[in-house]
TrEMBL record:
PANTHER family: P-HYDROXYBENZOATE HYDROXYLASE, TRK SYSTEM POTASSIUM UPTAKE PROTEIN
Listed name of the protein: 4-hydroxybenzoate 3-monooxygenase
Protein EC: 1.14.13.2
Natural source organism: Micromonospora globispora
Domain FAD-binding as annotated: residue spans: 2-341
GO MF annotation: an example: 4-hydroxybenzoate 3-monooxygenase activity
InterPro entries: FAD-bd, FAD/NAD-bd_sf, RIFMO-like
Length: 390
């Protein structure tokens, strides 16, 4: 097979890049090791920044998003038995939209297939060769047969455990990372949300987040130990702990219902530089991961490929090489801003292992400053809804 850009990975980054390339008249083929059913139903992030919403709508993917997505103009901070709202839209003129990552993926897959795009699911043994030549080759197996995809460029959008980053020679990439001493236990529950906006709660028992996915489905998280066993968390214990951490404001209670899914997610920060080598360009979780506290993961992936789509369009349409040459440097400015914001939110809201009274007081003081200072609240708000340019 032959295409212009070979894309490894059918998550939001890979699919969005293929969609953008199609808009620019550039051919691509997407390779994915999982099945279509799997990638369309894996539950991941659900908060879209204003810029991500604008990108999806501008490229023809906004119909269902605007109909089913839930626009939020603020978030709530709970600490010391008090509740404080951060008015995102009032402070920035922008908002966030709650719309699950799996829904974005469904919309992207439908759009690519409707346009005649090629997405090859269930491939395995993917290998990248010739990345330092002008004719890279992606070799893989499909239905038991060896196949080759020849292309001009390769986009590695295959996540942290994918093969793309590992195809770069030793010594080229530099890794920056931090592992946090806690994890998130997340549940998806068939319970109508008892909130209109997300609640971030810090308590002496640990952090909790009340989010939502639809008028009928709630998404909730608890801070737990990084080595926690999900088997030790029956539904009754989860609900009891959520009540203890969230029902700290008089007269408010959460809605409970059957738990549809539950799992434990470790917390880490991870960045690799540069995000490109020769004819390989990396995007999304393949080169950066943030703790989910700042709701930046999917948004960073979409921002990466928006840059990459424009860079490929300039190369093919005008013969310009500057945008591709500067892709990594440009993308990393936003990546590091999001890294700092996610670290700050995480540090401010989570109970630290072995935390003493001094550290707890500092966290409360920081939260109160955010809640009462318009300048500090504006900083949180503009980072949360997404900075237009960095």
């Amino acid at each position: 097979m032959r295409t212009q850009v070979g894309i490894v990975g059918a998550g939001p980054a890979g699919l969005m890049l293929s969609h953008l390339l199609h808009w620019h008249g550039i051919d691509s083929v997407v390779l994915e090791c999982r099945s279509r059913e799997y990638v369309e139903h894996r539950v991941r992030a659900g908060v879209l920044e204003q810029g991500s919403v604008d990108l999806l709508c501008r490229t023809g993917l906004g119909e269902r998003l605007q109909r089913e997505g839930m626009r939020h103009e603020g978030i709530e901070l709970r600490f010391d038995g008090e509740s404080h709202r951060v008015p995102l839209t009032e402070l920035t003129g922008r908002a966030i939209t709650v719309y699950g990552q799996q829904e974005v993926v469904k919309d992207l897959i439908a759009a690519r297939l409707d346009a005649g795009g090629q997405i090859l699911f269930d491939v395995d043994d993917v290998r990248l060769d010739g990345l330092d030549t002008d004719s890279p080759v992606i070799r893989f197996r499909r239905d038991g047969r060896e196949e080759e995809l020849h292309c001009d460029f390769v986009a590695g959008c295959d996540g942290f455990h994918g093969v793309s980053r590992g195809s770069v020679p030793d010594g080229v990439l530099t890794t920056y990372e931090r592992t946090y001493p806690f994890a998130w236990l997340g549940i998806l529950a068939a319970a109508p949300p008892a909130v209109d906006e997300l609640i971030y709660a810090r308590t002496e028992r640990g952090f909790a987040l009340y989010s939502l996915r639809s008028p009928e489905i709630s998404r909730l998280y608890l801070q737990v130990a990084p080595d926690e066993d999900i088997a030790d968390w029956p539904d009754e214990r989860i609900w009891a702990e959520l009540r203890a951490r969230l029902e700290t404001v008089p007269g408010w209670s959460l809605n409970e219902g059957p738990i549809l899914e539950k799992g434990i997610t470790p917390m880490r920060s991870f960045v690799v530089e540069p995000m490109q080598w020769e004819r390989l360009y990396l995007a999304g979780d393949a080169v950066h991961i943030v703790p989910p506290t700042g709701a930046k993961g999917m948004n960073l992936a979409l921002a990466d490929v928006a840059l990459l789509g424009d860079a490929f369009a300039a190369w093919y349409g005008e013969g310009r090489t500057d945008l591709l040459a500067n892709y990594s440097r440009t993308a990393l400015r936003r990546v590091w801003r999001a890294q700092h914001f996610s670290w700050w939110m995480t540090s401010m809201l989570h109970r630290l292992d072995g935390e003493d009274a001094y550290e707890a007081k500092l966290q409360s003081s920081t939260l109160r400053y955010v809640a009462t200072s318009r300048a500090y609240a504006s900083s949180l708000a503009e980072n949360y809804v997404g900075l237009p340019e960095v």
